[in-house]
Amino acid sequence: MRETTAPRVNGDRMQIHPERASNVVASVLAAMHGLFGTPDKRIALHEPEFRGEEWTYVKECIDTGWVSSVGSYVDRFERDLAAFVGCKHAVATCNGTSALHICLILGGVEADDEVLIPALTFIATANAVSYIRAVPHFVDSETISLGVDAGRLERYLERVAQVIGGVCVNRATGRRIRALVVMHVFGHPSDLDALVEVARRWKLALVEDAAESLGSYYHGRHTGNFGCLAALSFNGNKVMTTGGGGAVLTNDSELAKRAKHISTTARVAHEWNFLHDEVGYNYRMPNINAALGCAQLERLPSMLQRKRHLADRYGQAFAGINGVRLLREPPGTSSNYWLNAIMLDNGLAARRDELLGTLNEAGFMSRPVWTLMHRLPMYHACPRMDLDVAERIEAQLVNLPSSPGLIASP
Ligand SMILES: *Cc1c(COP(=O)(O)O)cnc(C)c1O
Predict the structure, then answer these.
(1) I need a surface site. Which of 1, 82, 378, 389 has the fewest CB within 10 A?
(2) pLDDT for 364
(3) Where do the domains of the chain lie, and which CATH numbers do they carry?
């Protein structure tokens, strides 16, 4: 059940000439035709690219019979991935949601705790909190990175929370606020220095939902290295894929050991006996998926480079269009440009659906951002701060086709 978000009516709206408002849809469409010509089949939002050793590695799994939860590709994938992101440990999982679930458990989240998460995120972030029977507590975003607004979160916590004996407590609900999950939206790194500081001051475990930000750097350091734990996703629509898959990242060897243990049914090593020392999860990435991942990682730099080039081309194409802003990487960061997005000016939000309809009809797949978490029936009653920026982004944003293979390299 989706409430309608009234577009923000302010001075800006009055300044937009009616002709300009109708022109914006035509101008964006013309820019898309300029970039891609007239598509003979629909251009997808994000398609995987298999141009390396994928077939060789996957075939080897089938030929040798090592397709499932044991095999050398899983270890190799974890090593290669950790090296790529500059993180001590990577633990491969069956998808990004399970990786997030593990991150929250190891971050110390327990039933009835509250976990601060952005309202502007994919459903997996909120669901992982619910799997622990903890309560998502929604926070607002800022318009540079679209990530959690550290300054407003700080002021909000000053109003509603209190640190008592090293524990952050929600003064209204009495519940412990245990963790803050930040998400790097469409690959653009959030304002990490400020968010790390908020987490430190309020005694919150910082978890990065880095599902969208493989290949994205904040001040030269790969995302996923800023909290105690981070989750990656290798779903088919992400920058690289293992079919389905994810990973837990951490620089803490003890947490890495725990992540591996509870994601592999908490089995105690033994030559032949089935011994499990706690309730674990069957979240391990199968070897056949890891084989795909090893091949994809080899090609990741090339895919990232072409995605940056595509973003530059979008930037040039939209530069002259009034009322439309292409989302660029925040200053001091390098984004993987997972999904390109345009933001319409306040006064043009009413045209968003017309723009989506026109682009999709012309064969350019385009999508609005996710419905904000607090609008969904199961999360309607969760605690939240004022979410007016997230609501504005929701009303004004359109995602555009962003596959690495869309445009040839210069
Ligand atoms: C893709 C994604 C995930 C994980 O998704 P899976 O499909 O479970 O791999 C989690 N959070 C965000 C923000 C995502 O975009």
Answers:
(1) 1
(2) 98
(3) 10-49+299-400 (3.90.1150.10), 54-297 (3.40.640.10)
